[in-house]
Amino acid sequence: MADIATVDTAMCDDPHTRVLSMYDAQSLKTTGALDDITRFAAALCDAPIALVTLLEEEYQHFVGRTGIDMAGTPRDISFCTHALASPNIMVVADTHRDPRFVDNPLVTAAPFVRFYAGAPLLASDGSALGTLCILDTVPRDGLTPLQQEGLVVLARAAMARLDDRRSSREQGIAEAEQRHALEQSELRFRTLADTMPQMVWSTLPDGFHDYYNARWYDFTGTTPGSTDGEGWNDIFHPDDQARAWTLWRHSLTTGEPYEIEYRLRHFDGTYRWVLGRALPIRDDAGRITRWFGTCTDIHEQKLALEEREIISQELSHRIKNIFAVVAGLIQFAARTRPEFAPIASDLRQRITALGRAHDFVRPHSAQSRPSAQQDSLKGLLDSLFEPYQQQDHSRIQVRGEDLLIDDRSATPLALLFHELATNATKYGALSTTEGTIDVTVEQTDDVVTLIWMERGGPVVVTPPSGLNGFGSQLIELSAVRQLGGQVCRDWQSDGLIATIKVPRPSFSRP
Q1: pLDDT tens digits, residue range 25-58?
Q2: Best CA proximity match to 452, nearest among 412, 393, 492
Q3: Which of 51, 182, 232, 369 is the most buried (most CB within 10 A)?
């Protein structure tokens, strides 16, 4: 006969079968967990046999029994099947006088049942799963009111014990499944981590290192477990240890991602550059439960980048020298042809301005790098305007928000503002000792507006002559063609106001 633990409940039509599988009838029979209730029921009703039964589709299990050795019967000969149809106690006073049971094998053969009384076991949803019943081998008039009430109370107690047993079993199954899932997840993680080309590690929320993959031990040549806790720091280059600890503690305190380049001791004794990264894993409440990190060998890329940086610095330095040589050649040529001296002076100044712009944005070494941020518009303008400033005060002031620039926009910006400053020196605010200029930077999401405002120069009656020459064309070339902007010049009595509108993407590549 099929045991309830092995029945495929998903295929059963009877709802009792689907519910009963949760109670583990076989385990209940084996442990005798309900036998004390059947003993008390037998004593209360003065009956030789008492049973706690659970019914499935084809079989009736005796999960608690007193006075009988049978473990169960087929359902089609079960008295309890009939008892389930009644919400109250079903009493059969004499089976020989009841046509339902007169030919029942349990009546005509052992245990020779002549009297039956059964109270249904009702689940929380109202469904009847089995009974608490008493059997006698002689007919009886029935049960006393006390016996009937007692049988009902004991049936509830049996159902409560079954529910407790079910809950405990379900919890045990859930915990076992959870442990199995965790073990499988851990196995998958370790398998995946050991096949990755990067070194992989993890820590507890407080930063205690408790796992490294095989790649870590292959790279460092350390003994498994020797770098747990704080032992990892000994693998770092001595010059990188303090920096790594500082950044790591900052991440542990703030929960911010950890990222750093440092040198790790290779198994051959050399130190190699690696990129270390780590991210926190959080629970539903936002608490950090673990940190997972990687170390990627970037030694070859680091060396190649340093080599390219040195070459780039050298080339940029030579380009800077070329600007100086060209400016010198122009000045030398002007000495032999005095009639070209004014043109040569303008050209030399423009070459010098380009040289300043290039020197500001070019790659630098740590020693040659300018103090201002190299992608700063204000930094570039300060460098361009330095020759026009006075020691006691700034004649050209830059106001407004700073803006990111790159090497592509630096050249046209340098030419544009050099021409404005040159014109101001010849005709405008910088041609007098008291004149000043304000450069204002205004930004929107799409457009940057640069406002050049001169004050304190010669009174302007009509725009100065000669403003449609090469310098003005150079302003248009820089602002309009190279930066994609617009230039508007307003000659007021107090000086020039030039408004340059440039699309924001023209200043810096995305």
Answers
A1: 555 555 567 899 999 999 999 999 999 999 988 9
A2: 492
A3: 51
Largest CA distance in the chain: 145
CA distance 386 to 396: 9
Question: Residue 128 region, left (φ>0) first, then alpha (ψ -120 to 50), else beta?
Answer: beta
Q: At a CB cut-off of 8 Å and minimum separation 6, what does 250 contact?
A: 256
Give the pLDDT mean for 430-434.
86
The pLDDT of residue 5:
32
Contacts of residue 44, Cβ cutoff 8 Å, sequence gap at least 6: 146, 147, 150, 151, 154
- The CA-CA-CA angle for residues 81, 84, 85, to 5°, reads 105
Q: If we measure between CA atoms, which residue out of 469, 461, 478, 367 comes closest to residue 415? A: 478
Asked whether residue 389 carries a pLDDT value surpassing 90, the answer given is: no
Token duo for residue 325: 């040589």
Q: Would you give the end-to-end CA distance of the chain in angstroms? A: 75
Alpha-carbon gap, residue 494 to 454, rounded angstroms: 7
8 Å CB contact between 417 and 378: no
Query: How many Cα atoms within 13 Å fall on the side-chain side of residue 365?
Result: 9
Query: pTM of the predicted model, to two decimals?
Result: 0.39
Strand 59-66 to 49-55 pairing = antiparallel
Q: What is the pLDDT of residue 42?
A: 95
Closest listed residue to residue 138, CA positions, set 46, 37, 36: 46
In this model, does residue 236 exceed pLDDT 80?
yes
For residue 290, which amino acid is it? R
